[in-house]
């Protein structure tokens, strides 16, 4: 296994190409690469990029869907000691222009239809089709200096749910530690499914982790619930990452008698499925791993094998120090909500800056700690539980309400497909709970029935007063619901009011 001191992609490719050159490195669906092939592709791509004027330390935009072109652009850029800037393929218009301007890249590797969008917002930015990256010279390109593990590896733009996306500068060490909670579970014999978008740090990790462990990754364009088990069986996948609603889509697939007949050992799922043990039995899993990390900060929290606290994110990694604090950065008591702040025992793991955004960097790094903006609580055993994004938290009648917990219970109603919980001002200067929902079928959810469903599942103060059925939710390019837009929208003529309907819920209910 590669150690942290060899976390530079150039060194990783050199290592495995020398030791296991004929071992399978990447399954591409219609073919694949050995570790020797992977290095050769990286070297050829690096020479083409160098011929285009890319130098060590330069930034290269990559706006592509998952595929061999993405890997060539990424590894070729890294082989030169340049910095890859992944761009969400859904980006367009002003949001895309902001990223391009701020990144100040020397080249974009892209293809239709994304190339046209880039041309509209940055006509002067040179563009290169990924197909050109296969024709480079096979001789290793020279470096002006050695590439170090603390050098920038990527600038990854966050979702920007409250404003413009921020570019987190991440090092090779950060990429290495992003998969720390999987390293003690995996070895060269494992096969990792990489079906998350590579323009997200989580997607990059599903390739970087197996690359650094000498294992094989199975790169696919996207996650498809109906084909998931087919891919797992065809490619002998042993480990998979499920984020957001992916686990619910899988749980909702029609059960088959042979669902457990597959090579999967475990999945990483955040959040976990509604019934984790039933999910494990159905798919024949040894474990479901829970964790908490960020684009800016890998290796924060993770669960251990044999977990029983299914809503917990786990405990801090050995390299990470964490605290839960109030608005003055003072520790909160056990069991009380506080903002998670972190620092690492290993330098260069947490992002040192948001590229070109010194004010944003200063707001995140205060008093020697990185402020995540996430509210959590910790129990007596030291297990941490996510409550909410700090900006999404609600407080009603002196009680803290987790929008995540409300949404989780709302989603347990069969008529609801999606849910977003926000706080709205009430007539007393306090907050009331408003939940937006979409329908899971042909008939809209009945608000009164939904509230009755929630009465026994939520504390009385957390049961929504307002319910509004909408056709769709506003989303970021990374598919996160833009709650700030829903919060600004508030209640309207289409909003159902529980109190106006004569339904009161008290402490005694």
Give the tally of structural domains: 3
Distance between the termini: 57 Å
Secondary structure category: alpha/beta
Mean pLDDT: 92
Percent helix range: 25-40%
Q: Low-confidence stretches at least 5 residues in length (pLDDT < 50)?
A: none
Question: Regarding CATH, which class of the largest domain?
Answer: Alpha Beta
Q: Find the count of extended strands (DSSP E, 2+ residues).
A: 27
Strand content: 15-25%
CATH architecture of the largest domain: 3-Layer(aba) Sandwich
Shape: globular
Radius of gyration (Å): 24 Å
The main pleated sheet reads as: 5 strands, antiparallel
CATH-defined fold name of the largest domain: Rossmann fold
Task: Please give the count of helices.
Answer: 15
Domain AMP-dependent synthetase/ligase: 13-345
Pfam families: AMP-binding, AMP-binding_C
GO molecular function: acid-thiol ligase activity
Keywords: Ligase
Describe the secondary structure blueprint for this structure.
Elements: H1 9-19, E1 24-27, E2 32-34, H2 35-51, E3 59-63, H3 68-79, E4 83-86, H4 93-103, E5 107-110, H5 114-121, E6 127-128, E7 152-157, E8 167-171, H6 172-177, H7 180-183, E9 191-194, H8 201-213, E10 216-219, H9 228-235, E11 239-243, H10 246-251, E12 266-270, H11 276-283, E13 287-289, E14 291-292, E15 301-302, E16 315-316, E17 320-325, E18 338-344, H12 358-364, E19 365-366, E20 369-378, E21 384-389, E22 394-396, E23 399-401, H13 403-410, E24 416-425, E25 431-439, H14 447-455, E26 466-469, H15 483-489, E27 496-497
Parallel strand pairs: 1-10, 3-4, 3-5, 5-6, 9-10, 11-12, 12-13, 25-26
Antiparallel strand pairs: 1-2, 7-8, 14-15, 15-16, 17-18, 18-20, 19-20, 20-21, 22-23, 24-25, 26-27
